[in-house]
Amino acid sequence: MGDDSEWLKLPVDQKCEHKLWKARLSGYEEALKIFQKIKDEKSPEWSKFLGLIKKFVTDSNAVVQLKGLEAALVYVENAHVAGKTTGEVVSGVVSKVFNQPKAKAKELGIEICLMYIEIEKGEAVQEELLKGLDNKNPKIIVACIETLRKALSEFGSKIILLKPIIKVLPKLFESREKAVRDEAKLIAVEIYRWIRDALRPPLQNINSVQLKELEEEWVKLPTGAPKPSRFLRSQQELEAKLEQQQSAGGDAEGGGDDGDEVPQIDAYELLEAVEILSKLPKDFYDKIEAKKWQERKEALEAVEVLVKNPKLEAGDYADLVKALKKVVGKDTNVMLVALAAKCLTGLAVGLRKKFGQYAGHVVPTILEKFKEKKPQVVQALQEAIDAIFLTTTLQNISEDVLAVMDNKNPTIKQQTSLFIARSFRHCTASTLPKSLLKPFCAALLKHINDSAPEVRDAAFEALGTALKVVGEKAVNPFLADVDKLKLDKIKECSEKVELVHGKKAGLATDKKEFKPVPGRTAASGAAGDKDTKDISAPKPGPLKKAPANKAGGPPKKGKPAAAGGSGSTGTKNKKGLETKEIVEPELSVKVCEEKASAVLPSTCIQLLDSSNWKERLACMEEFQKAIELMDRTEMPCQALVRMLAKKPGWKETNFQVMQMKLHIVALIAQKGNFSKTSAQIVLDGLVDKIGDVKCGNNAKEAMTAIAEACMLPWTAEQVMSMAFSQKNPKNQSETLNWLSNAIKEFGFSGLNVKAFISNVKTALAATNPAVRTSAITLLGVMYLYVGPSLRMFFEDEKPALLSQIDAEFEKMQGQSPPAPTRGISKHSTSGTDEGEDVDEPEDGGNDVVDLLPRTEISDKITSELVSKIGDKNWKIRKEGLDEVAGIINEAKFIQPNIGELPTALKGRLNDSNKILVQQTLNILQQLAVAMGPNIKQHVKNLGIPIITVLGDSKNNVRAAALATVNAWAEQTGMKEWIEGEDLSEELKKENPFLRQELLGWLAEKLPTLRSTPTDLILCVPHLYSCLEDRNGDVRKKAQDALPFFMMHLGFEKMAKATGKLKPTSKDQVLAMLEKAKANMPAKPAAPAKATSKPMGGAAPAKFQAASAPVEDSVSNTVEAKADLKKAKAPGASSKAKSAQGKKVPSKTNLKEDEDKSGPIFIVVPNGKEQRMKDEKGLKVLKWNFTTPRDEYIEQLKTQMSSCVAKWLQDEMFHSDFQHHNKALAVMVDHLESEKEGVIGCLDLILKWLTLRFFDTNTSVLMKALEYLKLLFTLLSEEEYHLTENEASSFIPYLILKVGEPKDVIRKDVRAILNRMCLVYPASKMFPFIMEGTKSKNSKQRAECLEELGCLVESYGMNVCQPTPGKALKEIAIHIGDRDNAVRNAALNTIVTVYNVHGDQVFKLIGNLSEKDMSMLEERIKRSAKRPSAVPMKQVEEKPQRTQNINSNANMLRKGPAEDMSSKLNQARSMSGHPEAAQMVRREFQLDLDEIENDNGTVRCEMPELVQHKLDDIFEPVLIPEPKIRAVSPHFDDMHSNTASTINFIISQVASGDINTSIQALTQLFQIESLAREASTGVLKDLMHGLITLMLDSRIEDLEEGQQVIRSVNLLVVKVLEKSDQTNILSALLVLLQDSLLATASSPKFSELVMKCLWRMVRLLPDTINSINLDRILLDIHIFMKVFPKEKLKQCKSEFPIRTLKTLLHTLCKLKGPKILDHLTMIDNKNESELEAHLCRMMKHSMDQTGSKSDKETEKGASRIDEKASKAKVNDFLAEIFKKIGSKENTKEGLAELYEYKKKYSDADIEPFLKNSSQFFQSYVERGLRVIEMEREGKGRIPTSTGISPQMEVTCVPTPTSTVSSIGNTNGEEVGPSVYLERLKILRQRCGLDNTKQDDRPPLTSLLSKPAVPPVASSTDMLHSKLSQLRESREQHQHSDLDSHQTHSAGTLTSSSSSSTNIDDLKKRLERIKSSRK
Fold first, then answer.
1. Residue range 1005-1030, pLDDT digits in tens
2. What is the pLDDT of residues 1598-1626, one digit of tens each?
3. Within 13 A of 374's CA, how many CA atoms are on the CB side?
4. Which residues have a Cβ under 8 Å from the Cβ of 1848 and sit 6 or more positions away?
5. CA quadruple 1810, 1812, 1815, 1821: dihedral positive or negative?
6. How far out from the chain centre does Cα 1416 lie?
7. Do 167 and 129 meet the contact criterion of CB atoms below 8 Å apart?
8. Which residues of 202-226 are buried (b: 16+ CB within 10 A; e: fewer)?
C-alpha cells in the first residue's frame, strides 16, 4: 500500500499523468470536479491542463478513458483556451476513441468533436475527421462519417464545408464494408437536405442501385428549407432570438433568414474540374478541317463527349473555340453546325466565367447563323448563345449584338431580339444601366416597326422584359415616340415576363451576373427616388439629335404627337416642343404671308420691299416693336423670318436696315419657338453677312440666338458647312471665330467633332492667313474640352503648321474650360434637370473618343499576316509585327473588330526573342490608344497575357509590360481586370518578378477606385502567400498593397481569409492586417472632390463626373452641367488631361482665385514626423539617387498633395521650367508670412529643390539658390535645427552644385553651405563635404576642400569627423591630385589646420610621398604663420555660442538630440586630445613666452590686460548656467510623452558613436520616473555591460579612451543613484554571485561590482524606506547559500565577505530588530547562515552600551565610547575611509577623520592607509593639513559648490568651448562662486594659471583605474615648480596662493601631454625662476 499512499498526496495534474491507472482515474475525477467549479472561462486554472487534455482522451485503460472523456468534454465546453488543443485532441478521439467497443466512449468522442465545432474550431475538426476516413479500421470510418453527419445536421451547411465531404462520397459508396456504405448513404441524404439537386452531378457516377436507393430517400425528405439546430458561440444570441420567434409563433423571419442559406451551395462549386485539352484526339485539328463531313463529325463527337463534364479546368481553349466557331460559321452541313453549337454550349457551361474571354469572338458568328431555319439548329444555337451569355456580361457583347440588329435577314433580327429578351431576364436594374439600355432600345424600336410580324413580336418581348427589369421610369424616355397601341403591347409583354431573379437584385442562383455591376451603378443604386430620377432623366437635345442628323433622315423624329401632347412634366413638355420644332413643316410663301399679316401692321408688310431705304428702315422699326410685344405662343417664327428674307432679303444694301434685320432675327429666335426649319431659312444669309465689317456683330448675335434655340451642335454644323461652301475668306474666318466663342458659351456637349475637323482641316489649308489663325484658335478652344487626343487628327499636317497648333495647345494647357453660360436656361424647366445631368457623360462621356473616325482594319488583318506573325523565322515574325504597327499607325483610330490579331499577338507575348516581345508590347500599347475604351473586350484574351509578361526576368521587358498594362487600364478602367479569376491566377504563379510588379500595380490602382468587383477577394490568399514569399521585394510590395485591398474588402473579410493559413502564418498575417488597418486609406471621396485628383483611367473619370451632381446635389444647374462637360473631356481623352487633373469647376472655378490668395503650405500636425517614420520603416523610397527617377517625383508629388496648395503643386511639377520659376517666386513671397508652414514642409521643399538641381535651366537654378539663401537665413533666425533626414536628403545634392562651371552659382552654393552651419552642426556637415571631395568633377573637389578648410578655420579641429587623423589623411590624398586647383585647395586646407594646430598636423596626416610632403612643407613655410590659437579663438567663440543657442532652440522644437551629442563629442574630443591644450580660453592660458620675456614689469601691464579681457567674462557671472541647461529643456519637453522619450533614447543608444550612446543612457537615468522602471534583469545586463566596457583594454587605445571611461564611470553612478534601489541592489548581488562563480571572470570585474555595492551601502540611510527588504534579504540568502562562509574565505580576496558583512551590518543598524521580520520570502531559512548572522549582529549591537543613537553613528561626527570594541572602531574607520574614497562625501570623510584623530590622538589609521596607493595617502595627509589650517583660520579654500555629477555629462558643449570642465578635487562640476574666486587669483597673478589640465577623473573616484605612479610624480614635480615660482612673488599674495596651491594639489590633474612636454615645461619654469632671482 506504500505505493498507493504515495500518489494520493500528488497534485491533480501529476495524478493525471501517473503510471498507475487508479491514480489517473482519481486525477480525472478530481479534474472533472475542478472544471465544473471554475466559473470564469478565462481563469488561469484552465491553462494548467492544456497539455494534458490529449492524454485524457487517449488513455490506454478503457474505464479510465471514459472518465477522461467526460472531463475533456467539460473542459472543451468551458475553457477559454480549449481551442488550442483542437488538432491533437480530435486526432486522439479519431484514432483512440472511435475504435472502442463501448458505445458510451464513441458518444462522448462525438460530443467532444461537436463541442469543438461550437467553440468555432469547425475547420480543424473537419480536417481531422476527413483524415480519419482514410483509416484502415472501418469502425473509425463509420464513426467519422457519423460525426460529420451529426455536425451537418446540427450546425448546417454554412459551418460544415460540404465540398470536401462530397469529394470523398463516391469513394465511400464503393467501400467493401456495408456499415460504411450505409453511413455514406445517410450522410448523402443529410447533404441533400441542405443543398438539394446540387448534389446530383457529383454522384452521377456511383452504382445505379445505390443512386436509386438515394433517390427514394431524397423524395421522402420534407421540402421546407432546413435550419441549423445548434449554433456557434458567436451566434448563440441568434439562437435565443429564433426561440423567441418560435414561441411567438411567427416563423416568418426565420424563413427569411434561410432564404439566403439554401441556394448558398452551387453544384458547380462541388465538382472537381476535369482537364480535357490533353484528351482531345491527336488529329482533331486536322479532322475538323477534313473535306469529308463524316470525319468532321467524328472530331466534333469526340469533343462533345469531353465537354459533357460539368466542370472543366481552365486552360487555353482559344484554338478549340476557333475551330468550333469556324464550323458554326462556315460549315455547310447543318447537322455539324448544331453539333458544334452543342460543343460550345458544353464549353461555356463547364468553364463558366473562364469562357468569357472567347465570348466576343463567338457571339457574332452564332447570331449570324440564326439565318438557318431548321428548328434543331436554331435550338442548338439558342442554347449555345444563352450559355455563352452567362459567362460574360451584356456590356461586353453589346457591340456585337447591336451590330447584328441591322441585319437584313428577319430570322436573324427575330432571334437576336429574343436573345436580348432572354438576356435581360438575367439582368437587374443595376446591371442594366441607362448607358446599355439606350442603344438596345433604339435598335429594338426600329424592329417594332419592321414589316415581319415575328421580328416585331420579338422586339416587343425584349422591350417588355427591359420594362419589367428596370421599371417604367427608366424605359419611358426611350419610348417617347412610340404610339399608344405599341406601348400597350410592350406593357402587355412586360406583364408576362418571368425574371430569373424575381424582382430582387440577383444574389442567388446567378452570382456571376451580379458581379459585373458596371462601375457606375454606385450612383443609380442610391435609393428610390434619386435612383429613378437618375435613370429616367431624358436627355434633352443634342446628344440624341446630332447623331440622327448624321445618320441622314431622321427615323426618330417621326411622331411628334404623343409626347408633345401629353406635356405632363416640364421636361416632357420641353421634349415635346423640341420634337415638334424639329419637324416643323416648311410653309409656302403664301401661308407665311398670311400668318405674318395676322401679327404685323399692314404698312410694315407693304414697305418690306420698298425701294427707299428709309421706308425700309421705318418698316423694320415697326417690325421690331411688334415682335417685342408679341407673345411666345402666338409668334409665327417661320412666317416672320420668311418675310425678312423676302426681297431684297439678305442682299439688302443699306447697312442700317441690314443691322436692324439681323437684330430682329435674333429677337425672333430668343422670343419665339424657333424651329430648325426657320433657322435654315436665315442661316445662309447670316453666314453671308458675318464677315461684314458693319453688320458682322449683329449676324453673330443672331447666330448665337439661333444656336440657343436650336442647340449649338446642329447650328454649328449648318453654319460651318455653309461657310466652307462659299469662297469668302472673311466669312470663313469670322464663322470660325464665332464658333470658338460659342463653344465657350455653350459648352461642348454634343458637338460633332468629326464634322468640324474636316472643316478645320480645310481652313488650315486655306491661303488666307486670317482663316488659318481662326482655325488654330478654334482648335485651342476645342483642346480645352477634348484634350490631347485632338492632336492626333493633325499629325499629318506640315511641321510648321503643327508647331503653331502645338503652341496654341500649350497655351491652353493647365486651363480648365469655362462654365457654360448659354444653351441651358431656356430648357431647364424642371428640377429633373439635375437627374439628367447625371447621365450626360453616358452619352457624351466618350464624346470625343466616340466621334473620332474609327477605321475598320479587320480586312487588313489577313490570314497571311497572321501566319507571318506566327512564323518560325523571327525575322518574318518581326516583319509581320512591323506591318501591324504600320496598319494601326495609319488608321489612328480603329474599330474594335480586329479579326485574328489578338490570338496572333498573344502568341508573341511569350516569344523567345525578347525584342519581339517588346515590340508586341509597344503594338498593344498603340492598340489601346487606337481602340479607346472598346479595348475592354480584349482584356481577358490579351490584357491578362500582358500581365504574365510582368514576370519576365529582364527589367526593360517588365517596364514595357507595365507601361502597356497602364495604357490599357487607362482606357478600360480596372473593373475588367479584376473581374473573374484571371488576375488571381497570375498572382498565384510563384514568380517573384511577376508578383512584385503586379502587386505594385494593384497598390497604385486600387486606391483610385470607388468600388471593385467582388472577385478581388480571390487574390487575397495569394496576397497572403506573397507576404511570406522568400523574396524580400515581393514581401514589401505585398505589405504595401495590403491596406488598399483592405480598403475595398474590409478588415473582416481579409481576416476571415486567413483561416486557411497555417497557424504561424496566420498570426503573422493578422498582425500585418492590424498594422494595415491603421494605415488603411479612405475610399476616394465623392467625385466632386475626387475629380480634381485624376483617377486612374477613363472609366473612373467618367464615373466621377457621373455621380457628382447626384451626390453633391449641385443645385445650380448651370454649374452642374459645366461639371459634366468638363469631367467628360478628361474622361474621354483619358490621357494627359486626366493627369493634369481637370478640376470640376462647379466649385473650383470660384475657388481658383481664393486658393491663390490662401496659404501655400498647409500645416499638417505631425506630418513631417510621419513622413520620416515612413521613410525609416521603408514604406516609401529613401531619397537617394544619382538622377531622380519618375517614382521619386511621383512620391514627392503624393507627399506634397496634403500640405501644398494644389495650384502651387501644379506649378512645381509642371513640365515647363517657367512654371518652376513662378513657383519659386511665390515661395519667396510667402517665406516670411508662412514660417510655420515652411518649417512643417521643409523636408519636402528641400527634396523638391534637389530635383531642381538636376534641371539644366540656369535661371531655375539661380532662383532656387536665391530661395535657399533666404530660407536658411530664416531658419537660423527661427533657431530651427535641420533633422538628419532633411540634411541627408538635401546636402549631398547641394554639394553636387559646388562643382558648377558658372562662378556665380558656385559662390551661391558656398554661401548656402555657410549659412547651413547655423542650422546644422558643422561637424555633421563635414562628412557630407568630405564625400564631395570624391567626385569626378575637379571643380567640385577643389571647392569642397576649400570649404573643409573654412570649417576647420571657423570651428576648430572638432569638426573633423570621424577623427581629425582620418579626415586629414583623406584631405592629404588630394595633394597629389592631377588638377592644380585641387592640389592647391588641399594644401591650403592643411595649412589652415597647421595654423590652428601646429606641428601636430604631420602626425595626423601620416605618411605622405616625398613629393607631396615637400610641397606641403614649402606651402607651410610660405604661409609663415606661427602656430597660434588666437585668430581661431575669436571666430570660434561666436559660432559655438550661436550653435548652443540653436541647439537649445532645437531641443525645444524636439529636434534630434544628435546635435547635442555631437557637440558633446566635440567638446569631449577636445578634452581627450593632447591638442586640447591649445583650445584653452585665452584668458586662462599659461603663456610661458610672456613670462619668459617678462622683466618684472608685469604689474604695470596688469590693469590693461585685466580690463581688456576680463570685463566681458565678468558680466555673465552665470557662466555655467548654459552647461547645466544644455540637454534638459529637450527632456522636460518630452517628459509628457514617455513613449516618445524612450523611443528617442533607444535611437540614441543604438547610435554608432559611443559617446552618444553613453550620453543617451545618462539622460535616461536622469528622468526619475523612467529610471525607476528598469527591472532587475535589465539593470543586471546594463551593469554587466558597463563594467565590462570599463575594463576593456581596447578602449585605452582609442584617442578618447580616458574620456569614454570617465563617461561610463559617471553613468554607473547615475544608474546606482537613480534606479529603483531594490532592483539595482538585487542586480548587483546577482552580478557579484555570477562573477565569483565564473572562472573566466576577471577579479577586476568582481572588484568593481563590489565597489558599486559599497556605493549602494553608502546610500542606504537615505533610501532604506523605499527598499523592499524582503527581496534583498532573499537575494543575500541565495548568495550565502551558493557561497557559504567557508567558500567565501577561500576567495583570493577578502572583499566579497567584507562587502556582504558591511551590507548586512548597515541594514541591521538601520532597521534594528525589525530586520528579522523581513525574511518572509525565504522558504527554508536553514539553507544559509543569513538568519544566524543577523541574530548575531542584533545581539552584538544590543550588547553595545547603546549610548549612541543610530543617527550619530551614521553621521560619524561623534564620541565613540572608549570601551567600544576594536572591531567597532575598525568598522567606523572603514566607514570614514569609504567616504573619503567617494566623490561626493570626500570632504565630509576628511572632516570626520580630522575630528576622529583629534579626539583619539592615539588612534591608528595606518592599517587603512597601508592598502591604498601612495597617491591616496598623500592626498589624505594633505587634506587633513588643509582642514587644520582652515580650522585655525589660516586661510580660506574655495570649495566646490557640490553640483551633482549629472552636470558633468550634460554640460560639455560650453559656450566658449574651453576645456571640457574645470574640475575640482574629485571631478565634480563647479559653480559660479569658484569662478569668482579664480578670477580674484587671476587678477592678482595676471595670467599665471594652472588650469592647463585635462580633467581626468581623480583616481580615487569610484570605479576608476588604479593610479599610474609616473604620471602622478611628474605632476607633483610640476606643482613643486609652481610653488617655487609662487615663493618668488610678493608676500601679500601669500594666503591666496597658499590656498590655491592646496586647491590645485587637490585637483590631481593627470596632464595628457607626453613626458617630453613636461620636461620642456620644467626647463622653462627653471628659466623663469632664475630670471626672477
1. 888 888 888 888 889 998 889 988 88
2. 777 778 888 888 888 888 888 888 888 88
3. 11
4. 1610, 1861, 1867, 1868, 1869
5. negative
6. 54
7. no
8. bbeebeeebbeebeeebeeeeeebb
Count CB neighbours of 287 within 10 A.
Answer: 19
Q: Give the chain's count of helices (H) and strands (E).
A: 110, 0
CA 1217 – CA 1255 distance, rounded (Å): 9
CA separation for the pair 572, 1380 (Å, rounded)? 89
Smallest CA-to-CA distance from 1611 within 1952, 1949, 1903 is with 1903
User: DSSP label at 940?
Assistant: I
- Residue of 1067 and 543 predicted with greater confidence: 1067
> Which three three-digit cell numbers place residue 1318?
547655423
1212's CB contacts (< 8 A; 6+ apart) are 1200, 1204, 1219, 1220, 1223, 1248
By C-alpha distance, which of 1145, 1159, 1270, 1260 is closest to 1206? 1159
pLDDT at residue number 1443: 41
From residue 627, give the alpha-carbon distance in Å to each of 294, 609, 642: 83, 19, 14
Q: What are phi and psi of 1142, to 5 degrees?
A: -60, 125
C-alpha atoms less than 13 angstroms from C-alpha of 265 in its C-beta half-sphere: 26
Phi-psi region of 675 (alpha: psi -120 to 50; beta: other; left: phi over 0): beta
Among 1316, 1407, 1408, 1392, residue whose Cα is nearest residue 1356 = 1392
Question: Does pLDDT of 576 surpass 80?
Answer: no
- Cell readout for 1853 is 558643449
Query: How do the residues of the chain divide into helix, strand and coil, expressed in percent and rounded to 5?
Result: 70, 0, 30
pLDDT average, residue stretch 348-356: 87
For residue 836, which of 1110, 1077, 1097, 1100 has the smallest C-alpha distance? 1110
Give Cα separations from 1416 to 26, 1389, 1422, 1432 (angstroms): 95, 11, 10, 21
Tell me the residue ranges of DSSP E strands in 1515-1598. Answer: none
Bridge partners (DSSP) of residue 1843 are 1869
DSSP structural state of residue 274 = B
SS (H, E, C) 1921-1961: HHHHHHHCCCHHHHHHHHHHHHHHHHCCCCCCCCHHHHHHH
Task: Tell me the CA end-to-end span of the chain in Å, nearest whole number.
Answer: 109
Q: Which amino acid is at 1092?
A: S
Spatial separation of the C-alpha atoms in residues 662 and 660, rounded to whole Å: 5
pLDDT of residue 1141: 40
CA–CA gap between residue 1276 and residue 1442 (Å, rounded): 9
Cα distance between residue 944 and residue 715, in whole Å:
46
Is the confidence at residue 1531, as pLDDT, over 90? Answer: no
Residue 1496 region by backbone torsions, left for phi larger than 0, else alpha for psi between -120 and 50, else beta = left
Q: What is the pLDDT of residue 515?
A: 37
DSSP 1204: B
Query: What rounded mean pLDDT belongs to the chain?
Result: 75
Contact 753, 1100 (CB under 8 A): no
Give the residue-averaged pLDDT of 1831-1836: 59
Instruction: Tell me the C-alpha distance between 1099 and 1102, whole Å.
Output: 5
Compute the distance between CA of residue 445 and CA of residue 1860 in angstroms, rounded to an integer. Answer: 97
- How far is 86 from 92, CA to CA, in rounded Å? 10
- The answer for 438, left when phi > 0, alpha when psi is -120 to 50, beta otherwise, is alpha
- The amino acid present at 1757, given as its one-letter code, is A
pLDDT tens figures, 1033-1079: 999 999 888 888 888 888 888 888 887 788 788 888 888 888 888 87
| In 589-728, alpha helices (H) | 589-599, 602-607, 613-629, 637-645, 655-671, 676-689, 696-710, 712-724
How far apart CA 1657 and CA 1779 sit, in angstroms, is 11
Axis-axis angle for helices 1242-1253, 1190-1201 (nearest 10): 150
Instruction: Give the pLDDT band of residue 1936 (cuts 50, 70, 90).
Output: very low
